[in-house]
Amino acid sequence: MLIIKNLGNGIYHINEGDSDRSMLYRYGILKRDCEMEKDDICTTEDERVKLIAKREVEISAEKKETHIRLTIPMSENERFFGMGDATRKALQMRGMKIDVEIKNVVGYGPMPIFMSTDGWAFILNCTYRSVFNFGEKDKDTLTVDILGGDIDYYLIVGDSMKTLLSKITDVTGKPMMLPKFAYGLTFVQNEQTDARSLLWDIRTIRDRNIPCDTMGLEPNWMEKHYDFSVDKKWNKEKFYLPHWLPENQSDHFSFFYPMRKMGMQLSLWLCEDYDLFYAEDKNLEKKEEYQFDEDAVILDANFSSGVRIDTVTKPEEPWFDHLKKFVDNGANAFKLDGCTQVLSHSDRLWGGKYFDNEVHNVYPVILAKQMTMGFRDYTDRRLLLYTAGAFTGTQQYAATWAGDTGGGPKTVTSLLNYAMCGHSNTSCDIDVDPAGLHYGFLLPWSQYFCWANWKYPWFMGETIEDMVRYYSNLRSSLIPYIYTMAHKAYETGLPVMRPLPLMFEDTDRFDGTNNAYMLGDNFYVGVFNMDLKLPDGKWIDYFTDEVYEGDFTYNIPEGRGGALFVKEGSVIVTMKPQKYVLEKQHDYVVKVYPGKDSSFALFEDDGFTYDYENGIYAETIIETRNSTENGFELVINPRKGTFQGRPDNGHDMKRNSVPEIKGIQPEKNMTVEIHGRKPQSITVNGEVVPFEYDGKSAVFTAKTSERADNALTFKITY
Question: How far apart are CA 92 and CA 420, in angstroms?
Answer without folding.
Answer: 10
